[in-house]
């Protein structure tokens, strides 16, 4: 499997998008992004990717709150 990473909050250019689509087709792969990042894509682009929802769950929320309160 191949991974192509971009920095957080990367503003994808049309050239980036075409490169990703071409690479996916050549590898018989799917484009995958988080649901959060998919929100920044156009509706057409969103239709071409699979979205991975991510949730964060803390085992000890009171300890986290204490850290945030410091």
What do these coordinates show?
The protein has helices spanning 14-26, 35-38, 43-46, 61-69, and strands spanning 31-34, 49-52. The protein is built from four helices and two strands, in the order αβααβα. It is an alpha+beta fold. It has a two-stranded parallel sheet. The model has no long low-confidence stretch (mean pLDDT 90). The N and C termini lie far apart (42 Å). Helix content is 43%, strand content 11%. The protein is elongated.
Which sequence of strands runs across the widest sheet? 1-2
Tell me the β content: 5-15%
Please work out how many helical segments DSSP would assign: 4
Arithmetic mean pLDDT: 90
The helical percent reads 40-55%
Quickly describe the structure:
With 70 residues, the protein is an alpha+beta fold. The chain is 43% helix and 11% strand. The longest helix is centred in the N-terminal third of the chain and has 13 residues.
Using brief descriptors, characterize the structure shown:
two-stranded parallel sheet, alpha+beta, 70 residues, elongated
List the helices and strands and how they pair.
Layout: H1 14-26, E1 31-34, H2 35-38, H3 43-46, E2 49-52, H4 61-69
Parallel strand pairs: 1-2
